[in-house]
Amino acid sequence: MIPGVLTVAGSDSGGGAGIQADLKTMLALGVHGMSVITAVTAQNSLGVQGAWELPVDAVRAQYRSVVDDIGVQAIKTGMLASAELVEAVAELIGGTDAPTVVDPVGVSKHGDSLLAASALDSVRTKLLPVATVATPNLDEVAQLTGVHVESEDDLRRAAAAVLAYGPRWVVVKGGHLSGDAVDLLTDGSEEHWLRAPRHDNRHTHGTGCTLASAIASQLAKGQPVPEAVAAAKEYVTGAIAAGFALGGGIGPVDHGWALRGCEP
């Protein structure tokens, strides 16, 4: 039986991030991807030109439709836009017996806001406590906790600040630091430092969505969290290396690189 993974996130019309990136990642990693669309964006390589969140009832109906009939082996959340959506999704996840990867999406690759300021407290108090793994980048860590990471030494402090809100594990993504691309995975007692060479490629749209979906895919296949995150990091590193130009701005990572036998 092919494991099923449910992504609860926004649609990216340009195909590089959001629901589209999630489903491509799941296909590449051998799981069945399913979706709950929380928002529709008008988006391309240059940025986000518009965003429209779906009604809470529509999000809840999509979720129940999938979970009640098909079931899920893992869940991934992305863009949730408003406090109402965050709280509704957190309640749904809390009633579902499946590991959940929370990507606390705050801003797009281009700096466009994808989360209302009024929703931050709901992310902290409702969504993070139901997360098996939270995957904030450095901007999202600062947004959620006030901790600003300037060097690798700050990653532990950032991780502790996120863990204080209740996720079982956190991956603090240090991709915005100089040097190697280093992430810290910890549950507060054990640490895993994940390093990869930094590829000289500006086409990195969708990296956060892709990493979170890859972790969820590996969890659905039964891997423990440290192994799932390490495998996801390897997949994303290859996708970044193979990223390609699309349009006039920042192109996407290549979700299909491994299917073509490419080397990371």
Our estimate of the beta-strand percent is 15-25%
Determine the N-to-C terminus distance: 29 Å
CATH class: Alpha Beta
Instruction: Tell me the name of the CATH homologous superfamily.
Output: Ribokinase
Order of helices and strands: EHEEHEHEHEHHEEEHH
- Number of DSSP strand runs: 9
Number of domains: 1
Unreliable residue stretches: none
Pathway: Cofactor biosynthesis; thiamine diphosphate biosynthesis; 4-amino-2-methyl-5-diphosphomethylpyrimidine from 5-amino-1-(5-phospho-D-ribosyl)imidazole: step 3/3
Keywords: ATP-binding, Kinase, Nucleotide-binding, Thiamine biosynthesis, Transferase
GO cellular component, one term: cytosol
Catalytic activity: 4-amino-5-hydroxymethyl-2-methylpyrimidine + ATP = 4-amino-2-methyl-5-(phosphooxymethyl)pyrimidine + ADP + H(+); 4-amino-2-methyl-5-(phosphooxymethyl)pyrimidine + ATP = 4-amino-2-methyl-5-(diphosphooxymethyl)pyrimidine + ADP
Could you give a short description of this structure?
This protein is an alpha/beta fold and 264 residues long. The protein contains eight helices and nine strands.
Q: How would you describe what is shown here?
A:
With 264 residues, the protein is of the alpha/beta class. It has a single domain (4-260), classed as 3-Layer(aba) Sandwich (UDP-N-acetylmuramoyl-L-alanine:D-glutamate ligase), CATH 3.40.1190. The chain is 35% helix and 21% strand. It is built from 8 helices and 9 strands. The chain has a 9-stranded mixed sheet with strand order 3-2-1-4-5-6-7-8-9, with helices on both faces. A hairpin with a 2-residue loop joins strand 2 (32-44) and strand 3. Helix 2 packs parallel to helix 3 (83-94). The radius of gyration is 17 Å and the shape is globular. The mean pLDDT is 92.
